[in-house]
Write a structure and sequence with these properties.
heterodimer, A: 206 residues, alpha+beta, 7-stranded mixed β-sheet, 7 helices, globular, B: 270 residues, 3-stranded antiparallel β-sheet, two-stranded antiparallel ribbon, 8 strands
Amino acid sequence: MTRTLSLALLSCLVWAPAQAEPPASQPTHDHVHQAMAAGPFQDGSIYPLATPLETHTGAKVKLALYQGHPVIVSMFFARCTSACPMLIRDVKKLEAGLDADVRDKVRVLLVTFDFERDDPAALTKLAELHGVDLKRWTFARAPDDEATRELAGALGIKYRRGPEGDYNHSSVITALDANGRPLGRIEGLSQDSTALRATLNAAAKR
Amino acid sequence: MRSGWIIGLALMAAPALAAPPAAVRVGPAAFKPMYPAPGDPERLPVAAFLLDDRQVTNGEFLAFVNAQPGWRRDQVADVRADKGYLSHWAAADDLGPPGDSNRAEQPVTRVSWYAAKAYCAARGARLPTELEWETAAAADGTRVDARDDPKVQAERLSWYAQPTRGQMRASGSGPANRWGARDLHGLVWEWVYDYNGTMVTGDNREGDGPDTQQFCGSGAISAADGAAYAAFMRYALRGSLGAAFTLRNLGFRCAQSVTPKSPTKEDSRK
């Protein structure tokens, strides 16, 4: 308990207050060693991956765009007709079940497998279709399969591109703390999200 | 006498001075996967590619870690490698006195997918895809695809049946298969680029349908017949891996795409 608290305090000292929205642009200043080492992220944070992402607004950001907030993260693709709408519905349900003050702090990041076809226009269309709060939700794509697979690897998500360009994939919803550390996950659709909801409520209150 | 002793020590301390792996050309091929993914044709085209003839060694990986200290076991981020990463070495930058698996010439193991991928990238190469790896591994000494041969199946299965113990053979010490690649069987498991491309359901006892609640597009794989069991072991292992996982008997080798060129006589003889 004490250790977690002191890490949280440390993080407040080290970083500026979190932005409400991803920045419009971010300078890339990765040095090889910096990119490889854990840096300020500890305890299994996925943010050292520094996955480059292009959001539904066309903004170029990195994976840690919501650093400072607990994050619900998952992967999908726009042309997915059955599982992905259900997945997004599950995320919305999870979010809706959070305490109100927690919900304001929590962000949602959905990254597509289909980096080729799910451009910002397609992602925006999907976002509007699902009627989500785009002040707290980001749909994004990585630049190539390798970056996509790095993120999927960190989230324990399996996927494979089919011959028609569609994707077979597992459905996994992961909660990250303010430093990108996975706190818990739900595997499969329409699962009981009670535990994950409690985890997020607790994480947001720290 | 004394100078010989010092030279001997220096040689022991230095990473292996063995020759780099040879790149053997595999394919093109029309590969019949043991476990076709939904929607796949019966045979999948595999463009010709270059494959290292042997696994990356401890010595080679040490040189990489020294060149890119961010990949040292005491510097790497948790997300990129678990606690077992390079734990068989004496120190972050030292293989240590030769033991069971830390000799310079042995295949490096206890490396994650991220680490293996980064090593290959540093060489201007990449990890082979699962399809490429399986295509290369279907061969034996004389045949491009020896998978239907019961003797070959038995031999490969018998390796899987043995627990890993004792000293690992040196990388490249096995005989070359038809393509020139060595030890795709019988030494260590190997990372592939799309290790997480096969959806494996944990348990098939509840029902026989694909688990559509878990996986978009279905995809439970089942061992249809005994001949496929060796392949099943590999697919099951890959399906159980996480990107940051490291295993005592999981190593890798690198691959490279072949630059497109005009078709040769060989290409047309499919």
